[in-house]
Amino acid sequence: MSLKRFLNQAVSSWMNEDGPASEIVLSTRIRLARNHNRYAFPTVFTKEEAEQTAQAMRTAVEQAGYPLEELKMQDLQGLEKRVLVEKHLISPNLAEDAGSSSVWLSDQEDISLMVNEEDHLRIQCLFPGLQLKEALRKALEIDDAIEKHFDYAFDENFGYLTTCPTNVGTGLRASVMMHLPGLMMTHQMNRIIPAIGQFGLVARGIYGEGSEALGNIFQISNQTTLGKSEEDITEDLLHVVDQIITQEKAAREALVKSSGIQLEDRVFRSYGTLRYSRVIESKEAAKCLSDVRLGIDLGFIENVSRSILNELMILTQPGFLQQYAGGFLRPVERDIRRASLIRERLEMDVSKDKGGSDL
Fold it and tell me: Is 103 assigned a ligand-binding role in the annotation?
């Protein structure tokens, strides 16, 4: 496998699979924060300690026997790092580092081990749809294998020790990416977001803390890591997510019942915008992609696959657009290229339809 493959393939292999509740839950992520007991934490460690940690991680991965490939941050250009962030393979924090930081990736891109980010090690597992228990099981399996060769910083009273106090304990961040257009259109998210905080959860944008919920996509995750087991944390999250799914389905049904023709009109106007626009900004593209995805889920649109929308969600991000262009693009140039790319991909998808005709 090569760096080019990771950068040029917009959709990770695991994203091509359908998972439980995939019409609402796009993906599940489990992330575990860990540090080596021997070295200072990344916020204060020396360059020598950073290199020693990175080497210790290489030894641990090799001895654990996982077929992963290492990409060193110092070997990547800024645009290449941005693409990896847009694919959720690395964090924005890791992308900013040019020292001894790296990421280990699986062929399917469902496993990502970030080294020398905020912590020495962050284990990330990604699954399609709602698969919290399955993702946790996989992450803990990797965690156990790495721990045999990488001495974790652990306290009997506080659990796993991390750079940020909010991660102390299990070091677990469990999250699901949800498409919630129904709740947004019926103005219920303003009520739901503070309500889930009572369960120790938080709703953020598509790229986590500080990011915007573009395309009606929200990342629901836990905030509490201390005082509960990994299983209890994921069970609490699963319980709340199940309720949100139920409410989203009810909101969609209510919209169809009360204003079905208006909703259908909105969906097809957005589809028309995507099919025929010559210039389109990222926010408008995200909004239209959300509408079309909803139209597919409700049966309004039949000859566009949900998978093509997953691809376009990533392909139309600034990093990918410039990666394909081979260099920096001004905002207006990105908007033109984004519109062209969307038209081409949708036309390819429609041509695969047995009838070969437009809607």
Answer: no
Listed in sequence order, the residues at least 6 apart from 196 whose beta carbon sits closer than 8 Å to its beta carbon are 202, 203, 220, 240, 244
Q: Is 30 annotated as a binding residue?
A: yes
Known binder of ligand: residue 29?
yes
Domains, the chain, ordered by start: 2-169 (3.30.590.10), 252-351 (no CATH)
Any known ligand binding at 179? no
Q: For the segment 185-230, what is each residue's pLDDT rounded down to a tens digit?
A: 999 999 999 999 988 999 988 766 656 778 999 999 999 888 899 9
5 annotated to bind ligand: no
206 assigned binding-site residue: yes
Q: Does 153 show up as a binding residue in the annotation?
A: no
Q: Which residues contact 179 (CB under 8 A, 6 or more apart)?
A: 23, 24, 25, 26, 215, 216, 217, 290, 293, 294
On whether 208 is known to bind a ligand per the annotation, the reply is yes
CA nearest to 61, candidates 104, 1, 124: 104
Of 190, 154, 139, residue with least CA distance to 35: 154
Burial class (CB in 10 A: 0-12, 13-18, 19+), 4: exposed
> Mind listing the pLDDT tens digit for each residue in 285-320?
999 999 999 999 999 998 888 888 888 888 888 988
Give 94-148 pLDDT, tens digit per residue.
Answer: 998 768 899 999 999 999 999 999 999 999 999 999 999 999 999 999 999 999 9
Q: Answer yes or no: is 176 a known binding residue.
A: yes
Residue of 305 and 54 predicted with greater confidence: 54
Ligand-binding annotation for 170, yes or no, is no
Q: What mean pLDDT value characterizes the chain?
A: 90
